[in-house]
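Per your request, structure below.
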């Protein structure tokens, strides 16, 4: 069912049929359901299955179309917009980044309804803006459509932002905010975000320094805005970036901690114990911003506990798929969210393969067994997320097993200590002591992660695959794990066939690249970079020894080999295929005459 729904959403990317198509399709599906009644006596009703799959496929297309239809088009001219601030303003180098959910445009004192959100870069004036989530703003601005930078193989930023409901951005200063009012009642989501900010203020008051607050906020509340780019790189290279985003790991730690804290509620009171744990988890989910990974874990835990309360066996795979189905129905574009894909890939692999791998090796003593448990989870989770990691981030962390064995237990202590700091808030002395322990654990986690990231060959950089290769590699790894861990479950032909298709996809993509060439002027920020690609050889002409991110992404996605040529601000002539190509930052008549391109 979920595959059919996702297929419909993906189909909606490419085609946008009219009303007549939906009417005819609906009639055909209804006819199929009616026809399936004649096959009810059979063990499997193929007609019903086909009709249900088509219905979900059609529903996926319709849901995605409706979601995109909520984003209104805006004219690229100055106008007055009314909207509601949807998140805490995020500090940038020269501005405050704000997301405003549009209510409409004011024209001749009338409000014309508009949907979607507007990304605003508000100029700094020396102090943070006095705006909170849920505040109503009337803004004078000129919207501009978000576009990509046009580099080959680049991340589709426009598509990413549109899936967040944002198609336009603008720049403002204090004079453009015409009115600012605070509501009497805020939405639950906005209240949760304000509570999150108050928790951060409380951490500061309890003695956690500014230099460690970003890491504490990321590891306990999932707020990565305060992290330095260098800190993010350390955690990515070490393969433990998942502890920086509130995920199933945090949910499991918190649920076990709360559940065990309520040990005195047993017997008939066990239902109260479960309900308190569920309420705490959902409160935590709201405070952390309702990310897909937290919603997945919270929904799954809710399903499992509901089954226990009703004394019915609950299948973990069915629970995880049900949670995904609910999230997709709520917001269809979530299937394109990196967090959603990584979270579900990891947990599905863990559910399917962790136990089989863990039982392959047994230890008599507790500590080696715990280390093996952590290593087994890391191996299986990494297998599930490997294709997505390579496709999205163009890297693979080599020392991920070592990093996770050391850092994940520490992150568990950080989460638990963070909760204890909040609980002990009415007791200042105890709270300050726990805050000191929290800061120490956070610094230790950062130091160990930095050490792991600096190890030789810590990451394999600049590797990449296409989305088709990603899907085929995921299938290959799934079938490969299935066969290696239980050889009686499937024939070896299945994973080998999937591997063959994966290799064929790479070869098919490689053929036109080898037979073609192009001239590229990269749209970079700090340096001038041009390139001449001949087959898989990329000759770069640049004024820097540092390889630009745009070039690295291009090389990784198309498996190119770079040859770097320094131009140092001077013009140069490249000869490719017998053609003279002039590369310069400024074109003059005398330069043309001398170079004869």
């Amino acid at each position: 069912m979920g595959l059919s729904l996702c297929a419909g959403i993906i189909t909606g990317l490419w085609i946008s049929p009219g009303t007549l198509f939906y009417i005819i399709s609906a009639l055909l599906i209804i006819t199929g359901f009616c026809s399936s009644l004649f096959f009810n006596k059979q063990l499997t009703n193929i007609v019903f299955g086909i009709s249900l799959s088509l219905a979900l496929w059609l529903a996926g297309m319709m849901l995605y179309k409706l979601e995109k239809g909520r984003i209104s088009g805006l004219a690229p001219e100055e106008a007055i917009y009314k909207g509601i601030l949807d998140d805490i303003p995020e500090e940038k180098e020269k501005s405050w980044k704000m997301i405003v959910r549009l209510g409409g445009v004011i024209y001749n004192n009338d409000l014309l309804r508009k949907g979607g959100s507007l990304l605003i870069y508000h100029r700094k004036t020396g102090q943070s803006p006095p705006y909170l989530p849920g505040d109503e703003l009337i803004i004078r601005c000129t919207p501009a459509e978000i576009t990509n930078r046009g580099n080959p193989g680049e991340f589709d930023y426009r598509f990413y932002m549109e899936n967040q409901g944002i198609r336009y951005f603008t720049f403002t200063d204090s004079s453009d905010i015409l009115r600012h009012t605070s509501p009497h009642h805020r939405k639950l989501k906005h209240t949760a975000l304000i509570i999150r900010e108050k928790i951060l203020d409380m951490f500061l008051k309890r003695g956690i320094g500014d230099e460690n607050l970003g890491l504490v906020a990321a590891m306990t509340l999932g707020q990565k805005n305060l992290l330095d780019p260098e800190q993010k790189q350390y955690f990515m290279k070490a393969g433990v970036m998942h502890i920086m985003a509130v995920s199933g790991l945090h949910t499991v730690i918190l649920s076990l901690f709360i559940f065990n804290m309520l040990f005195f509620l047993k017997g008939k009171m066990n239902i109260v114990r479960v309900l308190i744990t569920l309420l705490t988890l959902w409160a935590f989910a709201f405070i952390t911003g309702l990310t897909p990974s937290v919603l997945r874990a919270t929904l799954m835990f809710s399903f499992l506990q509901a089954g226990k309360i009703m004394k019915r066996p609950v299948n973990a795979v069915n629970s995880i798929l049900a949670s995904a189905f609910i999230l997709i129905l709520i917001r269809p574009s979530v299937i394109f969210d990196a967090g959603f894909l990584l979270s579900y890939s990891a947990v599905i692999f863990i559910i399917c393969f962790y136990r089989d791998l863990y039982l392959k090796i047994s230890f008599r003593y507790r500590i080696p067994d715990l280390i093996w448990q952590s290593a087994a989870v890391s191996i299986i989770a990494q297998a599930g997320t490997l294709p997505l990691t390579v496709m999205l981030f163009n890297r693979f962390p080599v020392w991920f097993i070592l990093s996770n064995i050391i850092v994940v237990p520490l992150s568990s202590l950080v989460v638990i200590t963070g909760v204890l700091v909040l609980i002990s808030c009415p007791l200042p002395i105890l709270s300050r002591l726990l805050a000191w322990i929290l800061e120490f654990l956070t610094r230790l986690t950062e130091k160990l992660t930095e050490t792991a990231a600096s190890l030789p060959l810590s990451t394999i950089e600049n590797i990449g695959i296409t989305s088709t290769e990603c899907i085929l590699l995921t299938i290959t790894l799934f079938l490969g794990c299935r066969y290696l861990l239980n050889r009686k479950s499937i024939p070896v032909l299945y994973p080998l066939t999937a591997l063959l298709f994966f290799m064929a996809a790479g070869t098919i993509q490689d053929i036109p690249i080898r037979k073609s060439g192009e001239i590229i002027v990269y749209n970079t920020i700090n340096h001038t970079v041009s390139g001449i690609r001949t087959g898989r050889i990329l000759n770069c002409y640049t004024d820097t020894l540092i390889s630009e991110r745009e070039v690295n992404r291009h090389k990784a996605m198309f498996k190119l080999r770079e040859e770097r040529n320094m131009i140092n601000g001077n013009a140069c002539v490249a000869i490719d295929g017998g053609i003279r190509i002039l590369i310069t930052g400024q074109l003059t008549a005398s330069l043309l005459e001398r170079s004869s391109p």
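The chain has four domains: 2-69, 79-186, 193-461, 517-595.

Regards,
D.
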